[in-house]
Amino acid sequence: MQTPVNPFKQALLEGRPQTGLWLSLADAYAAEVVAGSGADWLLIDGEHSPLTIDKTLAMLQTLAAYPVAPVVRPLWNDKALIKQLLDIGATNLLLPYVQSAEEAAQIVRWTRYAPRGVRGMASGAVRASRFGRVGDYIGRCEQELCLVAQIETRGALDCLEEIAAVEGIDALFVGPADLAADLGYAGQPGHPEVVAAVEDALQRIAAVGKAPGVLSVDLELARRYAEAGSVFTAVGVDIVMLARSSEHVVASFREHALPADS
User: Fold this and answer.
1) Would you give the DSSP letter of residue 208?
2) Please, what are the averages of pLDDT over each run of 10 residues along the chain (262 residues)?
3) Which residues are catalytic?
4) CATH superfamily assigned to domain 7-237
5) Beta-carbon neighbour count of residue 246 at 10 Å?
6) What are residue 107's phi and psi, to 5 degrees?
7) How is the chain split into domains, by residue range?
């Protein structure tokens, strides 16, 4: 058995647009519902959900049956947590709050075996190598790993090109919500100044040869970002879609319900 090619990474390298959705319900059953949506990639969000390593494993196992690429965002850029995620088979990582080239380079080292990094050796006992059945795992796993640095502050924007230049960083993802807050527009990701900053970042990322990505639940804005150069664009969050849809159903029923007897 050989290490499979990472289709998500390959698509980003080739500049093929990838449409994604966010998984924030932290549940494998819910993830399977979304897996059949036709999305190209799904973000398993460990930063803003009650996600644990065992739940992440269950979601990865569930999504493996579907033609969709799972991308995992850890709670934080922690060496031990990243090691666990790699061992359970995460091949696409979205790294939150990367602030500098130095931070990006450190994270890359955490994903590499010695002498290029400090990832612990246990390849024969982990799901990532199919428990030792993937014969070339140690030699090829880094080649198929996709690391995405998340840009979400003014400071990160200032050194965007330096972060993008770090060997091992494959793509950069702009986080409009945190960026909006850092720019003084908390809760206003659609503010004109925030939108302008996001579009500028997407264009700068593309200009240095890395794949740009972004999240927007406003579909009109998401299309605008795609036109500005976003290659992998997330357009919805499971928990938000459930919340808004449930509200809509209840409100629609009440609007047309028969009046109560007087």
Assistant:
1) T
2) 95 98 98 98 98 98 98 98 98 98 98 96 93 95 98 98 98 98 98 98 98 98 98 98 97 85 54
3) 48
4) Phosphoenolpyruvate-binding domains (3.20.20.60)
5) 10
6) -65, -40
7) 7-237
